[in-house]
Amino acid sequence: MALNTTATSNQITVGGITCAASISITGGTYSINGGAYTNATGTVSNGNTVTVRQTSSGSYSTKTDAVLTIGGVSDTFSVTTVTEAIFIGDINGNGKIDLADAIVALKSLSGLNPPGIRSDYGSSGIDVNNDDKIGLEEALYILQLVAGLRAEAPATPAGFTVTATSSSQIDLAWTAMTGAIGYKIYKNGNLLKTVTTTSTSDTGLNASTNYCYSVTAYNSAGESVQISQICATTLTIGYSYSQIWPMFGGNAQHTGQASSLGPQTANLAMTSNVTVKARTSPVIGIDKTIYVGGSDNKLYAITGVSI
């Protein structure tokens, strides 16, 4: 998402309530049935539609949240701004290499202290020869680019995402960069692979393990600055009751979905001498007690089970 941009969520429909419920929001505004957006507390009824709106951050690579609460149940609409496009030689940090950068380089080379040098010059990766100074190499590089005498290395890839999709795989994706002929993927600081596509996967990983990745774009003129590392943790093999059932329904939103993988094979874990038929799905309590509703309208609590 671009900086300082209005973002609107997908529309949801309120369901499962029999009377009006309160609605409130922090970090954004909401609209009911296509009406005006507001951040004031209100009420919604069954069948109403709701959308959420917020303004993205004014800083790069920054996530902002709008939290909508309906009847005590909350969900979050998140927006993350794009990664800053960084070019080697962009001394003044305006997103391009031009005559202004050449003038700053020449003034600095002459012993002057010109304004307009980005404050993070040394750490941003725009230094041509990585000596943390603006010198002859920078001046020549910029002048050659401005005069069209050399090709320009591509900018740092934008829109980089790192997503754990299983206990052994993490997917990576980014935006195609102008002038790039390929991309280099770094894992925990080391080169992992080189690809020509804008997505790839890292497989054969260990479960429940954190991995960090970065990506660069390259062409015949060189390699871009590495994007800041983004990390993800592979999913857990199997499950534990605390991961899957923090409360009834799987999570606080009552979606019926767990955030981790369940068992990959089915094994008989227990038997019970309850003779009535089960009328409800079983629910695992925080104390590992299994609760199930019977056809005789009684609630059965099964204890002593190893989970």
Please provide a brief summary of the model:
The protein is mostly beta strands.
Mean pLDDT: 81
Strand content: 25-35%
Rough outline: elongated
Which residues form runs of ≥5 with pLDDT under 50? 238-249
Quaternary organization = single chain
Radius of gyration: 27 Å
For the largest beta-sheet, the strand count, sense and barrel status come to:
5 strands, antiparallel
Strands, total number: 19
The termini sit apart by 43 Å
Query: Helical amount among residues, as a percent range?
Result: under 10%
Individual helix count = 4
Q: Which class of secondary structure composition applies to the elements?
A: mainly beta
The succession of helices and strands, N to C, reads: EEEEEEEEHHHEEEEEEEEHEEE
Write the layout of secondary structure elements.
Blueprint: E1 6-8, E2 12-13, E3 21-26, E4 29-32, E5 42-44, E6 49-55, E7 63-70, E8 73-80, H1 99-109, H2 121-124, H3 136-146, E9 161-164, E10 170-173, E11 182-187, E12 190-195, E13 199-202, E14 210-219, E15 222-223, E16 230-233, H4 241-244, E17 283-284, E18 290-293, E19 299-302
